[in-house]
Design goal:
Elements (H helix, E strand, L loop, with lengths): L4 H6 L6 E3 L14 E7 L7 H7 L2 H4 L2 E8 L3 H10 L5 E5 H9 L4 E6 L1 E4 L5 E6 L14 E4 L5 H12 L8 E4 L2 H10 L4 E5 L2 H7 L3 E5 L8 E3 L1 E6 H6 L1 H19 L4 H11 L4 H4 L6 E2 L9 H9 L9 H4 L6
Parallel strand pairs: 2-3, 2-4, 8-9, 8-10
Antiparallel strand pairs: 1-3, 4-13, 5-13, 6-12, 6-14, 7-10, 7-11
Helix pairs in contact: 2-10, 7-8
Length: about 325
């Protein structure tokens, strides 16, 4: 993740955005609500702000939130957009936020987000349905696709290979868009793919792939992968609004984690991502942390430093805004 401060900020100019339409469940006079601009890469991992908006948790917290999906570029683009002042709050993976912090971008974490749970491996490694591969050693000398060569899935795959006695440098990693990975597996142009939901279930439902490995388990069975953040300057100027945001996201996370609400959240998710019904209702759903826990953040940060995704390890505590610790 060797991105300079200039690269992060310049990426904001490349943003392609789509809005998420609100349907608040808690009615309050619009004039009494505080405006808040929120950016997310979307999909299930970044959908929590959309749930908070749609179900009225932002309105309940006193916020009139405009949630925008930045569909291209992932967390780095969201970080650039927030750092550049286009948005107040954003969502990004933890390693991208570490990289920004280490390059002098004044990011500070406000609310936790995606959890990796070994029992629900929403990011994982898949292989072709009829692949003869059965263990990590079978990947020696093979090609593995990831969405980014410096991303967290590549790091997790490298950690998993090393933990299972395979030198990661003997595996060739290539970049490939996640929706294309199932077809590439089926054609035999790659041996395995590291990807996330809903793309895992799409590939399996099409008969293209099978689950191969819970690669994050080599780092830990329970990890916080992403967070909602702002800049330190914005939080200083808007401390009460930041607290309102944290409150709304906490309520939304509790709601989204309840399996009884998955059918409703699936419909909200489907508004932004064209996911087939049969996939939407069978895919593994993301779990969200409801409080910061440094013990499930630090292992990921340390692994990111070990595999050169970030320049050096930092303390998880240093990333979290003091007002929400």
């Amino acid at each position: 993740m060797q991105l300079s401060r200039h690269a992060f900020l310049a990426a904001a100019a490349a943003v392609a955005a789509e809005g998420i339409s609100p349907a608040p469940a808690f009615a309050q006079p619009a004039a009494s609500l505080t405006n808040l601009r929120v950016a997310t890469p979307g999909q299930d991992s970044g959908a929590l702000a959309g749930y908070a908006q749609e179900m009225g948790y932002f309105a309940k917290a006193g916020l009139d939130a405009q949630v925008t999906r930045l569909a291209k570029g992932g967390g780095a683009v969201v970080i650039a957009a927030v750092a550049g002042g286009s948005y107040d709050v954003g969502h990004a993976d933890l390693t991208a936020l570490c990289a920004a912090y280490e390059h002098g971008i004044p990011v500070t974490l406000l609310s936790p987000s995606v959890l990796y749970l070994s029992a629900i491996p929403t990011p994982a490694l898949i292989v072709a349905k009829n692949s003869p591969l059965r263990s990590a050693r079978d990947l020696d000398g093979q090609i593995v696709a990831t969405a980014s060569l410096v991303g967290v899935n590549t790091m997790a795959a490298e950690a998993w290979l090393a933990a299972n006695g395979v030198d990661p440098t003997r595996v060739r990693f290539i970049e490939l868009a996640q929706p294309e990975m199932g077809t590439a597996l089926e054609r035999g142009t790659i041996a395995a793919a590291a990807l996330a939901e809903p793309n895992i279930t799409v590939a399996i439902a099409r008969g293209q792939a099978r689950l191969f490995a819970r690669i994050y388990d080599s780092i830990g069975p329970r990890l916080m992968l992403a967070a909602w953040f702002s800049t330190t300057d914005w939080v200083k100027r808007n401390a009460s609004v930041a607290r309102q945001f944290v409150s709304g996201m906490h309520d939304a996370a509790i709601w989204a984690n309840n399996p009884r609400n998955h059918a409703r959240s699936a419909l909200i998710l489907q508004k932004e991502d064209d996911i087939p019904d049969e996939v939407l209702h069978s895919m593994m759903r993301v779990s969200y942390a409801t409080a910061f826990d440094e013990s499930i953040m630090q292992p990921l940060i340390d692994a990111a430093a070990k595999y050169k995704v970030i320049p050096a390890a930092i303390r998880a505590r240093d990333l979290i805004d003091p007002s929400v610790r």
